[in-house]
Amino acid sequence: MPHYFFNTSNGSPHIDDAGMDLPDIDAARREAVRYGGSLLVDDPNMVMHDSGLRIEVIDTTGKRCFAVCVVIER
Amino acid sequence: MPSQVAPLSRWKEQQCERMALGPLSILIRKLLSHSLLSTADQEALAALPYSIKHMVPGEAILREGDRAVICPIVLSGFAYRQKMVPDGGRQIVALKMPGDALDLQSLFLHRADHDIRALTVAEFALLPLTALEKLTLDRPAVARAILTDILIESSISREWLLNIGRRSALARLAHLLCELHDRMNTIATEASAHFHVPLTQEQLADLLGLTPVHVNRMVRQLEKMGAIGRPSRSLTILHFDSLAKISNFSSAYLHRNNISGV
Prior knowledge:
The complex is a heterodimer of chains A (74) and B (262).
Chain A: E1 3-10, E2 20-21, H1 25-42, E3 53-59, E4 64-70
Antiparallel strand pairs in A: 1-2, 1-3, 3-4
Chain B: H1 8-18, H2 25-32, H3 39-46, E1 51-55, E2 60-62, E3 70-76, E4 79-84, E5 90-96, E6 115-118, E7 122-128, H4 129-138, H5 140-166, H6 169-187, E8 195-197, H7 201-208, H8 212-224, E9 228-229, E10 235-237, H9 240-247
Helix pairs in contact in B: 1-2, 4-5, 6-8, 6-9, 7-8
């Protein structure tokens, strides 16, 4: 099973050193959105910072697969 | 006059040892942590018939829908209760450690409404429910201790509901670790400076209602604060007071002073 890392930046920077085995990229997308949701439940203020919350998903080769962003538009 | 009185728990332990109550002494010690039992009650519990069973991690000791005929007592290792939804998602709804009775509810309810599984390599004493039921009918103090044990488990479940529903991820994890530390200390035969938590981060996620990535992030945060250590990727409690402060932990729901009525 492929392994993905979920790094966050902007509102809440953190480098994920453990990552997670997931069946495919679709599962990684769902996991990234769930993770973001879980972070925002704890601290909705995260998105008030400069450019919101950004979750970058990286594979084991270090390649960026996609990013999930939550921003407030004025 | 002795200058210092031995702590109650140590006294109970010595009493169990003196009476040579055998493998079930750990169950008796657990019941004595919240209930009064006469010497005769303790001897009657120790004389219950049992068989020994060893299990490997993940192995089921009871499945949802089963009709139980035995009540397993944890002698060593850890076990847990889990419930599942059809898509495979699961919630770990209780953790059980040495001394805990796993299925007192089957004395009164006929079908298991959840699975019970070994979390680690574990050893159980299996008590026939018929013998346990007879003992509760013959000895009211034993029946009362069993009811008290069930009530304290309900109290722990309420605290877990609060934990999952209303605490932040960091406080949620810290609170669970405080509870495990407190419960381990109650049954430990000797004080241990560092308590090892036998849960993987995936299991913690299924228990705390978080994603594994979020759990890992909170573990790293507690590690940075010096509250926990991670020797070889496992998890050790280093500083109980920090964890208690983060989670505003009070052990009132564990009812440690139930006997004295304080």
